[in-house]
Amino acid sequence: MAADVLQRIHPEIAKFAEAVLNNEGIGVCGELLKIVEPKSSLSFINPRIKTRSCDRFKVLVPYAGRTLKWEVIFNQMQPDFPPDFIFGPQDQEFVPNIDKMESLENWNCNNPESLVNLIKELIREYKEHQREQVEKIPRIHFEYTTLAADANYPEFEVHVLKGQQKTDSVVNFMIKLPVDLTGVPQFIIRDCPGEDIACLFVSYASLNGENVTPTLLLSPRVERAFGGTSNLRIPHWLGVNGCLLEYLPLIQELFAQKVEQVCQAFHKRREYVAAFLSAFGSSVLEYDAEGFMKLSLLFKVQGFFCIVHIELDKNFPQEAPLFYLQSIYHEKNNQPYEKLEAGYPYSPRWSGDEMAERARAFLLEKIPAFKDASLSNAKF
């Protein structure tokens, strides 16, 4: 998608757009800038001639849980000149202080980072503009000033979305939580996961504090380790008299407990899988070497081969593993015949080695019965 956009932008301007797309995450959540809707200022373009004529595009800027859409306008006839900006209809009152735009005043057409630097300066000005909007709303201004004065929460953003009536306005806070995530398992994420972070998004749908909705936002790797944000039920808002500085410690305490729980469960699963690898050696067909959530073993009992699939829950060892026996000979409904075996001896207090030995004894007892069930209930 990004490559397609760049292929349409004028060669003298594309270097600035490419730097925007390759820039590291910005803002509290560390999200990436995006470019959409490239257009040309030329009044006529011959459709038969493939040319890179686009000299204006829109930059999507993540800010306080919203996406700002700023139009960047270059002039391909004068590509060395700095661009103009058009801000969205919701930001008509935003007039940045040009005197503070060093990247604009000292525009360097030879530096591909010039546009990125200018956008960052505009974001800084936009943040100041939002602070001025907050000053007009007493309740929100109280939340803002007390939060800004607390050294525990240095990174946050606030955004005022004005409605037709003042009472229709919505105010959003995005606050980066100062939590230690170094122990969270390093799951592999296909897309660039960015920094491991946790943010609290708080939306004020009423400016007197009656309708407040808090939401926890996690970076991809942390969310995967937690099994999704739904597995972390955050406390309800404290009511009309509640405030951010009373609510945030509750979230941090809950989050710290969850991090400890996730880390302990991960280490227990790894210990469990390691015990099975040690106990069964060459019988191991495959196992999850990332999250240690499952493993498969090949057993031979009384001349009968079967595969044992073991699945672990994220709450292991509190939740017992699931054992599935699968015949390599038989099928039922065009699927390999398998059976879930329950009722095996288990205690979350056992070590991984003891769990493996208990499982061995259980499987040696159950596989002959599974062989008979395969012959009776499935076809060869």
Automatic annotation (TrEMBL):
It holds the Pfam family BRE. One of its GO terms (biological process) is response to ionizing radiation. GO terms for cellular component: BRCA1-A complex; BRISC complex; cytoplasm. It comes from the Eukaryota. InterPro entries: BRE. The keyword Transmembrane helix does not apply. GO terms for molecular function: polyubiquitin modification-dependent protein binding. Keywords: Apoptosis, Cell cycle, Cell division, Chromatin regulator, Cytoplasm, DNA damage, DNA repair, Mitosis, Nucleus, Repeat, Ubl conjugation pathway. Component of the ARISC complex. Component of the BRCA1-A complex. Component of the BRISC complex. Binds polyubiquitin. May play a role in homeostasis or cellular differentiation in cells of neural, epithelial and germline origins. May also act as a death receptor-associated anti-apoptotic protein, which inhibits the mitochondrial apoptotic pathway. Contains 2 ubiquitin-conjugating enzyme family-like (UEV-like) regions. These regions lack the critical Cys residues required for ubiquitination but retain the ability to bind ubiquitin. Belongs to the BABAM2 family. This is BRISC and BRCA1-A complex member 2.
